[in-house]
Amino acid sequence: MDNLSKKIGIIGGGQLGKMMILEAKRLGFYVITLDPSESCPSHSISDKQILASFDDKKAIRTMAEKVDVMTYEFEHINVDILKELENEGYTIYPTAKSLEIIQNKYNQKVTLLNNNIAVPEFQSVKSIEDIQKAGHQFSYPMMLKTCTGGYDGKGNYVIENEESIKESYKQLGNGTLPLMVEKFVDLKKEISVLACRGIDGEISVYPVGENIHKDSILDETRVPASISMECTEKAMDMAHQVMEIFSGVGMFCVEMFVTQDDDILINEVAPRPHNSGHYTIEGCFTSQFEQHIRAITGLPLGDVSLRCPTVMRNIIGENGESGKANYEGIDKVYKDGNVKVHIYGKEEVRPKRKMGHITVIGRTLDEVVKKAETAKNEIKVVGEK
Amino acid sequence: MDNLSKKIGIIGGGQLGKMMILEAKRLGFYVITLDPSESCPSHSISDKQILASFDDKKAIRTMAEKVDVMTYEFEHINVDILKELENEGYTIYPTAKSLEIIQNKYNQKVTLLNNNIAVPEFQSVKSIEDIQKAGHQFSYPMMLKTCTGGYDGKGNYVIENEESIKESYKQLGNGTLPLMVEKFVDLKKEISVLACRGIDGEISVYPVGENIHKDSILDETRVPASISMECTEKAMDMAHQVMEIFSGVGMFCVEMFVTQDDDILINEVAPRPHNSGHYTIEGCFTSQFEQHIRAITGLPLGDVSLRCPTVMRNIIGENGESGKANYEGIDKVYKDGNVKVHIYGKEEVRPKRKMGHITVIGRTLDEVVKKAETAKNEIKVVGEK
């Protein structure tokens, strides 16, 4: 079978799935998605959609039978069925094994630590007493996290002092979910490095992006990151090491902290294209989505060097906005010819929902950051009541 | 209505339609295509396809009623229905009026000439005697062309001498089609300039591309064109003038000849994105397809400056190849990280059929031309019998 005849199955038809498909279609691939929503962002561009929930084992098996390679756009999937399918000989990238380790933040960090990768100090906790003990050791503020299922700040709680331990414990499931604590990192910058591994083991590492979060959700990615050359090399090197540890095929995102002393600690690994990698669509010759498609179909990887300074800003549903999404201001934003808007096609806007993003390119990072700020302020997603 | 809520209708679901949709989808547009083939390149990515032939007036009307703006990916369409719809208030870009003039090569050239744009000497001919007379005036070789319906060399005939006039007349319809002759141009280069006009009259002109044809079909586009700075400015200026003449909204391609004396003559205008503009996907921030979508939906135009030297090579069905298309060598081609392949998704390969294209970027044009040549030789479309 030639590479281009491979049928691709994607679990999840959100914006990441959509952007994968847009790249897959340039190469003429046949794509099936699995998503419970009939109007998910991918619905109109996939060849076929299986309407089913993400833990529907039967539906996932049906998809596996129809495609040559299966992938996913987010990590909160029933990994048991993936392992089962993998054992039966179906191809899933990144592998179910690497997904399983990464899904659990505690296991992920243990794996990284065992491979001599620096991470913030952490501990598994099972009770309020455990958290109190950890507090004595790590001091405050201290992070409490659910080991599984968190995203965009959900599943995280900053414990400011011993008095708020009870509340944090209550907020994160009251003991129903596995928990861990992490020493709070006095950070200078948050950065992320995207990397991809081909089927033959080839690894490509993207430039370092600098991330700015707002209310625990990614707001902005600036590339290149304003860090020292030494830090940049170290970060890219660490991303490379992470790829070797998980030996997964496909795109990974490695989120990192740069400390006040210019040390780098790994915060989290995601086994998929990532919000902080959207800049690659305009900023690099090979976007993270195309790279992922190349990797999982066995094609060699493309060039990932930065073509010019690039900034990405998320378009997120504002507080108070809900209902059918209407976009205002795109005509204003587009008056600057170096701004590009991506709209995911979600029918409804909701507070904190990722609705799209803006990419700006230019000659200097300063200029691009300013233009992106202007664009971000001009575009509005309004909920039609 | 906000710009992004506009529904787009495209007549034609071939590769140009497909590439328009891939860009439209990044902005979340709803797209309907009209194409007689169920498996046309656009079929899996448009929201809806109307299965009908391109001269099916009723079907075109049905589409007009369902969308806010209608466009087309090729110019051989029944213009009467478009004019009728336009008169009733439906929006069609480029306008039916500009399409009507451009459809007829003779009228197109008269219009250009009346606006002081240099074109090769030409004449309308109705009979063998007319062609003979023109031959005395223009000398040989001389071009005979059908005024309507030609593409990729079809509808053109190079008359080498007076003896071959009868054969040329027979080959081009034996008097059933309107004909014209053109003085043969002793050309140094063939170039083309893409340009776009926004709804508010804003005009953006792309860099000049140098085109190399093989068997009358475009084989290669090199950007920037290897012509003098003066020629480049003149070509871009002429493209700008053409945009003002046809006052169309959307993308146009202006094909030109550079003579041995560095004069520029306009060969042909196409009221749509063009094969020689595929390089813009990787070579410019705003591709010709995105620009077209921006223009017809009333959005401001994007930046069109060249990001780096870029070469496009067509992937065309070779003589003897027919049947279900299989692609060989893409894994070899992709070993160079700066090569990108686009596969249109046509089920069957046929001799001279455009199946896809290759784009290569790099630091110098020389390097890129070489890499593109290597890639072109490595990829094969094989027809499965």
UniProtKB/TrEMBL annotation, chains A, B:
One of its GO terms (biological process) is 'de novo' IMP biosynthetic process. Keywords: ATP-binding, Ligase, Nucleotide-binding, Purine biosynthesis. Pathway: Purine metabolism; IMP biosynthesis via de novo pathway; 5-amino-1-(5-phospho-D-ribosyl)imidazole-4-carboxylate from 5-amino-1-(5-phospho-D-ribosyl)imidazole (N5-CAIR route): step 1/2. Its EC number is 6.3.4.18. The keyword Nucleotide-binding applies. Belongs to the PurK/PurT family. Homodimer. This is N5-carboxyaminoimidazole ribonucleotide synthase. It comes from Vallitalea longa.
